[in-house]
Amino acid sequence: MEIRKAKVQGFCFGVAITVKKAEEAIAQRSDVTTLGHVVHNPQTVATLEASGLRNAASVDDVESGALFVRAHGLPVEVFEKAQTKGLEIIDATCPMVTKIHVQAEKLKAEGYKIIVIGDPLHPEVKGTLSHVPGAWCIETVEDVAKLPRGSRMGVVVQSTYSRERFSDIVKALSEKYYEVRAVNTICTDTNNRQSEALRLADEVEVMVVVGGKTSANTKHLAELSETHGARSHHIEGPDELRPEWFDGVTVAGLMSGASTPGWLVDQVQARMEELTRQPV
């Protein structure tokens, strides 16, 4: 069986920066705490925690030391509470996420009612909403019909959102409102990986997508591959691979989410080759 790998693999630049900052922080001090996992990858999370990175559910549970802000960012009110408590803030928010905050604030300053497209429960989206109080958040095309009437709408989107769904929602918004100004804030890496998913889906029979089960961008890659003709399997590691997935398969695809380290993709590839190696 031939394995075709996506051209874009390993950490995206934002996650790479965040992980490096976390490693540097815990190497220098023993009182670094993050709210939630630094990245959506269980292996990386386990390594950082074993090295001393603490995890807390709320800033209320952090009494001293440094608060490490992960790639998704944090709501404004959490930053403010951390400062009030005298915590040192190590801000590793992804630059692409910060860009969304800036664009949303700019649109609001220009008089637009803000709509944030994305998962309202995702930490990145929660952070964005905190920068533009009163904004509406929608996740699907169907949600557009539930929105109140209005005139001038300014739109931003979660950095890891599906670009196809984003386009469909913007079209629906344009049909409902007099003026819609949409800024495509889906990050470049996400766009590149989604393009690779489309390309590979046309070439392979089955697609293996490696990444955390809670990773939005990894889920979208698996969904995109599935809807464009490739049987898809979203896994977190090589132990989840099943030989029956590749029965009769001539060409398989392999790609990863933005929070997946390159060494893990290599392990998955090695296991795929082992499972499909023809007996001599």
Tell me about this structure.
The protein has 280 residues and is of the alpha/beta class. It has three domains: 2-10 and 189-276, 3-Layer(aba) Sandwich (Cobalt-precorrin-4 Transmethylase, domain 1); 13-93, Rossmann fold, CATH 3.40.50.11270; 96-182, Cobalt-precorrin-4 Transmethylase, domain 1. It has helices at 13-28, 42-50, 76-84, 95-109, 123-131, 141-144, 163-176, 188-201, 216-227, 262-276; strands spanning 2-5, 32-35, 54-56, 66-69, 88-91, 113-117, 136-138, 152-157, 179-182, 206-210, 231-235, 251-256. The strands form three sheets. Strands 1-12-10-11 form a four-stranded parallel sheet, sandwiched between helices. A four-stranded parallel sheet has the order 3-2-4-5, with helices on both faces. It has a four-stranded parallel sheet with strand order 7-6-8-9, sandwiched between helices. The longest helix is centred in the N-terminal third of the chain and has 16 residues, at 13-28.
Please summarize the sheet with the most strands.
4 strands, parallel
User: Percent helix among the residues?
Assistant: 40-55%
Cα separation of the termini: 14 Å
- Sheet with most strands: strand arrangement: 1-12-10-11
Low-pLDDT residue intervals, each spanning 5 or more residues: none
Rounded radius of gyration (Å): 20 Å
The CATH homologous superfamily of the largest domain is named 4-hydroxy-3-methylbut-2-enyl diphosphate reductase, catalytic domain
Oligomerization category of the chains in this entry: single chain
> In the CATH hierarchy, what is the class of the largest domain?
Alpha Beta
Number of domains: 3
Approximate strand percentage: 15-25%
What name is given to the CATH topology of the largest domain? Cobalt-precorrin-4 Transmethylase, domain 1
Q: Tally of extended strands?
A: 12
The helix/strand order is EHEHEEHEHEHEHEHEHEHEEH
Task: Briefly note the structural class of the backbone.
Answer: alpha/beta
* Total DSSP helices: 10
